[in-house]
Amino acid sequence: MKHGHALRGILTMATILAAASSAARNLAWNPGFEKVSRETGFAAYWGMNAAYPGKVTMVEDAAAAHRGSRCVEIRQTRKVFVGMHAATRFVVGANRELQVSLWLRGNGTVNVTFYLYSQTPRYIGSAAVGAFTVNGDEWRRFTGVVAIPETSHLAKKAPAQVHKACLALHVTGGPVFVDDIGIFRKGDAPASPNPGVAVRAGRAPAPHILTIPVLSTPPTIDGTLAPGEWDRAAAVTGFHELGGDLAARQTVVYMAYDANNLYMAFDSTKDGRLNGGGVGRDKMFKRPHDAIEVWLKPPGSDWFQFYGVPEGGFLDLSQSRKLAWNADWKYAGKVTDAGGLAGEIQTFSRRRWVAEIAVGFSDLGRGTPGPGEVWRVNFCRDWAEEKGHKKKSEDWTTWSYIAGSFATPDMFSFLHFGGQTPALQVTGLGDLSGGNLHVVGRLSAAAGARASVSAALALRDGSGRVVYEKSQPFDFRTGGTQAFVFTDTIRVRGRTDMRLTIRAALLDSDRELTRIEVPFTALSSFVVKPIPIFAKGFMDVAVDASRLPNLPAAIRLQIEVPGTSIKRRVALDRKAPTATERFDLSLRANTWSARC
Fold first, then answer.
1. pLDDT, mean over the chain
2. 9 backbone dihedrals φ, ψ, rounded to 5°
3. Other beta carbons less than 10 A from residue 192's beta carbon
4. I need a surface site. Which of 123, 185, 225, 456 has the fewest CB within 10 A?
5. Closest to 570 measured CA to CA, from 561, 559, 584, 585
6. In the β-sheet with 261-271, what is the strand arrangement from edge to edge?
């Protein structure tokens, strides 16, 4: 944190997970603590042991958790250890040998044990798994094995049949952070922890890999995405400002080919007027104007550029011949109303622009690419600047992550000609900066294909740790198109740099077909920002709940300045979700923070 000013706030969106682990054989319910009980405010299906009190708290921060956005912090505060246990008991069954795994970091010792119960149910003893000592800030996986006895008894009581059991953690020292608990019967435990998608931290994203399919029926180039016309094509999104942040305005690009032509379609929506630019070829278009760009570089060749505007004008050029080079482009666009309401009144302020393009391979000096041939490619969407203002960085958006000039072919993505291989369509990512992961798309393939699509979130810090990962397999017995959705909420405190990786691969060979890397910065949806004004001895505290989902009609907050007795209540509502309060602290250049 710059200048020592604390920036605090937590995303409060709820992630809905199944009561059981995503792995059906895991006996631990809610193993990653992602689901929270409305009654207790703590992890659902888990409880704090009243006999061994201490500090057991939820931590809601993707950067702090091992996976997902939550973990649990346990800290001993008295002479006796602190306890936490699973609130749900499972039936032991005939297979009584269990393997337990859990991820830990911090400083302390965790004694892992099972509480045992009779069928009554009555507590009748315990079975120890082992003691794990952790000392460090890096997450480590600990495992242990225990055989649950058939009978157990407490002092002065007759042995009773062990029917159910639940996991308990007893911690001395602390803080110890716990995440991703697994309880598996013998033979069911995974051989090793899932390493997730390998992500190198602190680097620019690798160029995308896009595999496009061959089409049996070419699309009609008329500016309309007709039903079924582009179903077999590949599609991508995830545009960035030139050399900067994830773009607030996104575009979807479709791409495919046949024996003669390369086909592309751009689909984007804009709030406000679309500036048409004009008509004609290789002319200077009217300013301001919106535009789309395609950059192609076959192996051992010049790069080629196509630049089109909404009114139908376009220019094309090559690296060596500039505007003197011309190809037989087919280009058509259409601008339509995208709908939208303002005060429950239909508006016409949102416009959708679809642009379709075809170019012959012969015009690019090539024959039909064979399956496996690799080119370089990039797509750009240029947004018209406001009249009377110069273009800003957010007005230039690029699919490949490029810093500087668009004419940088070494930073273009890799375009693979795939023949009959499955085609991935990614048409939405959600509001990543707002903490909402919502990757939607489809996979299309010929009969007999088997493939998978996965999505993973990783931190862009020294660890590169994966905090979310999910994969979906597809078996195309009869061919066609199947949909997928990956949804999660990203809880962060302040700003957290992350990377989303989406990957499609063949199941039989794990051959990678498409890989998209999208770096972004996740922001807390509830922000408390201290603003010191040293010259006047004040500190302003700005509170912003405008991005908080499901904001109540009215909420009351209390702002506190740690180290002082200063407290002040602030009221927010849906119509006024922000506020700024001034505190007279007789400020000197020092470290101050605010919490809400």
1. 85
2. 165, 150
3. 7
4. 123
5. 559
6. 330-337, 350-360, 261-271, 251-257, 234-236, 423-428, 436-445, 480-489
Provide the token pair at 495.
Answer: 């700003």
Pick from 410, 415, 446, 403: which is nearest to 516 by CA? 415
Closest CA to 184 of 123, 93, 118, 109: 93
Angle at 154 between CA 150 and CA 158, to 5 degrees: 70
Tokens of 186: 């013998």
Q: Cα separation of 424 and 564, whole Å?
A: 56
Q: Report pLDDT for 278.
A: 92
DSSP letter (8 states) at residue 245: S
pLDDT at position 481, please? 95
Taking phi over 0 as left and psi of -120 to 50 as alpha, with beta for the rest, 409 belongs to alpha
Render the burial of 480-512: b for 16+ CB within 10 Å, e for the rest.
Answer: ebeebebebbbbbbbebbbbbbbbbbbeeeeee
For 306, phi then psi, to 5°, come to -120, 135
pLDDT on residue 360:
97
CA-to-CA distance for 270 and 265, rounded, in angstroms? 16
Distance CA 449, CA 451 (A): 7
Percent share of the chain, pLDDT over 70:
87
Which residue carries 């994966």 as its tokens? 466
pTM of the model: 0.76
- Taking the C-alpha atoms of residue 147 and residue 127, their distance in angstroms, rounded to an integer, is 8
Residues of the chain scoring pLDDT < 50: 1-24, 193-202, 341-345
HEC states along 111-129?
A: EEEEEEECCCCCEEEEEEE
Q: pLDDT at position 588, please?
A: 53
Write a three-state SS string for 62-104. CCCCCCCCEEEEEECCCCCCEEEEECCCEECCCCCEEEEEEEE
Look at the block and give the residue holding tokens 């999505």. 455
Q: Is 469 left (phi over 0), alpha (psi -120 to 50) or beta?
A: beta
> What tokens does 92 get?
């032991």
C-alpha 311: how far from its chain's center?
36
**pLDDT tens for each residue of 511-529:** 999 999 999 998 876 777 7
